[in-house]
Amino acid sequence: MARLDVIEMFHGISFSGHLHTQESLQSALKFPFQDTDILIASYPKSGTTWMQQMVTLISSRGDPHLNQTVPNWARAPWLEQYYFAKALEASSIRPRVITTHLSYQLLGPALQGSKAKVIYVSRNPKDVVVSYYHFHKIANFLPEPGTFQEFLNQFLEGTLHFGSWFDHIKGWTSHTASVDNLLHITYEEMSSDPHGAVKRVSSFIQCPLVENEVNNCVHYSNFSSMKDNKMVNYTLVPGEIMDHSKGSFMRKGETGDWKSMFTEEQNQYFESIFKSKMQDSTLESKSHRN
Ligand code: PPS
Questions:
Q1: Cβ < 6 Å from ligand 1: which residues?
Q2: Rounded Cα gap, residues 50 and 257, in angstroms
Q3: Nearest alpha carbon to residue 79 among 22, 27, 122, 156
Q4: Can you give the pTM of this predicted structure?
Q5: Catalytic residue numbers, as ranges
Q6: Residue 112, CB half-sphere, CA atoms under 13 Å: how many?
Q7: What are the domain boundaries of the chain?
Q8: CA–CA separation, 174 vs 166, rounded Å?
Q9: Do 113 and 177 form a contact (C-beta atoms < 8 A)?
Q10: Residue of the nearest CA to atom 19 in ligand 1?
């Protein structure tokens, strides 16, 4: 299934046809979650792979074997991608770990009444857009990004794949009452306090760890060990799908990298759009924008 240039429109949102079909997207919305499932939800480039690594390490009590032998997309497959059912069936990880970039607006009904544990990962949206921009340059299944200004406009308009960042974060974080178990954690928190983040996640998924296990989880999920681990750095993906000569998936792994890309004007414009789109949200302090 190459379909590198195909775009699937679904509920007004665009998706890469390389990984998604109308059927796979439709099935995601009807997925029968089990109460024991762990669902990692995020807008792209927010720390998804990092959380996949962290959660699967925590379930293995810090033992890196699985993380060094099974690719992240098989350990914690994406619900909406076409190979999901097969990958989930083949995975021996218990509890099941599932990933999604879908919005709560789309997935909420499937989660209603379920006690599946949802970990929502968010990141400073300015760093998200910079990371997403660079990823578009290497991913041949995504449209050409154009200039950074053009890309930024699309991000703020919500027309990139997976739709609006604003709708995504507001949807997932304002429905905590109807999703029984939701932990909201930020990339910035994982970065500034990785031990605290591992402990928070392990207690949320009810897998308490001793100190040594926490240290191992932190070690094997840090940027340099993930950058060197081919089960998680996407170098297993063939060059015609991801052009590794143009950059790495594990690019910088920093907070505040937007400052190397945004002009002062772009920053001011971003701030004004952020304020108007987020005025009905209490999240301002959570999503660091510095
Ligand atoms: S995707 O394609 O949506 O699954 O991408 P996602 O994994 O959400 O985000 C990729 C960015 O996360 C960075 N990353 C990390 N940063 C710090 N520490 C660790 N361990 C880590 N693992 C992944 C990755 O480098 C991408 O960010 P940028 O800013 O592009 O470097």
A1: 42, 44-50, 127, 131, 134, 221-223, 226, 250-253, 257
A2: 17
A3: 27
A4: 0.97
A5: 101
A6: 7
A7: 7-289
A8: 12
A9: no
A10: 223
**Tens-digit pLDDT profile for residues 97-109:** 999 999 999 999 9
pLDDT digits (tens, 9 = 90+) for 45-86: 999 999 999 999 999 999 999 999 999 999 999 999 999 999
Q: Whose CA is nearest to atom 9 of ligand 1?
A: 45
Of 47, 77, 33, nearest in space to 179 by CA? 33
State the pLDDT confidence band at 26, using cuts at 50, 70 and 90.
Answer: very high
CATH of domain 7-289: 3.40.50.300
Residue 177 in this model has a pLDDT that exceeds 70? no
Question: For residue 228, how far is its CA from the centre of ligand 1 (angstroms)?
Answer: 13
CA of 37 to the centre of ligand 1 (A): 23
13 and 163 in contact (C-beta within 8 Å)? Answer: yes
CB 8 within 8 A of CB 2: no
Are the C-beta atoms of 62 and 215 separated by less than 8 Å?
yes
Q: Per-residue confidence at 288, pLDDT binned at 50, 70, 90?
A: low
Nearest atom (ligand 1) to Cα of 52: 7
Ligand 1: distance of its center to the CA of 134 in Å?
11
Tell me which of 15, 19, 46, 49 to substitute to probe ligand 1's pocket, judged by most ligand atoms within 8 Å of the beta carbon.
49
